[in-house]
Amino acid sequence: GWSIGGYSTTWAAKHYNDVKAVVLDATFDDILPLALRQMPDVLEPLVKLTIRCYADLNVAANLAEYQGLIKLVRRSQDEIIATDPGDLASNRGNMLLSKLLRRRYPLLINATTEPILCNWLVTTAAEQASLMEEFNVNREECRQILNEYKEQYGSKYPYSSLGAQLTDEQHIQLVLYLAEHYMVDFAANHVTPLPSRIFMNITT
């Protein structure tokens, strides 16, 4: 699902069990902040009422009920789904990833890991790689922790107890690993066609 089509894609994924994987490109968590950006402040109450009653496109809420594979494509130069065009930190794809991780791995997103995740989200791919190195993220060890959890508790989300017996360092490593796993950065604006390589690793 691309852009606003992320809503219809996630609605279908939520309601139809045969949807095994979802790719969301240049989409948002909730349309309300984007709608508010376009309107004068004096109309904020009216905008909120209208959106919530008649056009409540909440992609994050749909994803919260979906159990399948997910890949998010964030366009680092996106001028449409950023509340402040040109500012990567305001890209609503960041909030979508944060909400997804909080829903699927509730114990991992905490006061220790949240600032580091926020830092990861405001950087581009090269800087993200440096952050992974700084915190000694071992991808194989992270996969092993996740696989051991699934063997013991099953694969249904949320992984409610994942992290209960882990150190703060392991929490950070897992959050960064999962952020990299779920989100792909694409250095382009909102309408540039996606290259085929983006779809190569959807099941990894």
UniProtKB/TrEMBL annotation:
<dbReference type="InterPro" id="IPR029058">
    <property type="entry name" value="AB_hydrolase_fold"/>
</dbReference>
<dbReference type="GO" id="GO:0016787">
    <property type="term" value="F:hydrolase activity"/>
</dbReference>
<keyword id="KW-0378">Hydrolase</keyword>
<protein>
    <submittedName>
        <fullName>Abhydrolase domain-containing protein 16a isoform x2</fullName>
    </submittedName>
</protein>
